[in-house]
Amino acid sequence: MSTVIVMIAILAAVIGAIVPTIKHMKGQGGCCGSGNESVSKEEEDKVLDGPVTCKKIIEIEGMHCSNCSNSVKRAINKMDGASAKVSLEEGKAEVSMTKEISDMTLRLAIENLNFHVKSISKL
């Protein structure tokens, strides 16, 4: 009897973990800690103070919803002299800069959010 109860508890735990994961991968439901639609509004564009001297395209894996792309945009926009436009559909961020920001700095900002940077190239 106790073996059956343990098996049912394990099965319930597995199902409880799989269903949200499947929804997350499909871009449905609460991703990145939010199930609230109002939270997933697009992050505002950052206006740079000076002329754009450099642009880079960053290919990113692991973004599944607007909360994911907004977190990438916020991380890049926090950098002095950088402004990002992030495309969830393309899995890319276009970064405009008023000064050179190293690829490593950009990579670390994104990978610290648990996304994977596939490539960074200059435009």
Order of helices and strands: HEHEEHE
Given helix and strand content, the structural type is alpha+beta
The percentage helix is 25-40%
Number of helices: 3
Number of domains: 2
CATH fold description of the largest domain? Alpha-Beta Plaits
Strand arrangement, major sheet: 2-3-1-4
Beta-strand proportion: 15-25%
- Text of the CATH class of the largest domain: Alpha Beta
Mean pLDDT score, rounded?
Answer: 84
Description:
The protein is α+β, with helices and mostly antiparallel strands and 123 residues long. It folds into two domains: 1-30; 42-122, Alpha-Beta Plaits. It is built from three helices and four strands. The chain has helices at residues 2-25, 66-77, 103-111; strands spanning 54-61, 82-87, 92-97, 116-122. It starts with a helix and ends with a strand. 21% of the residues are buried.
Layout of helices and strands, plus pairs?
Elements: H1 2-25, E1 54-61, H2 66-77, E2 82-87, E3 92-97, H3 103-111, E4 116-122
Antiparallel strand pairs: 1-3, 1-4, 2-3
Question: What labels would you give this structure?
Answer:
single chain, 123 residues, alpha+beta, Alpha-Beta Plaits, four-stranded antiparallel beta sheet, 3 helices, 37% helix
What's the gist of this structure?
The chain has 123 residues and is α+β, with helices and mostly antiparallel strands.
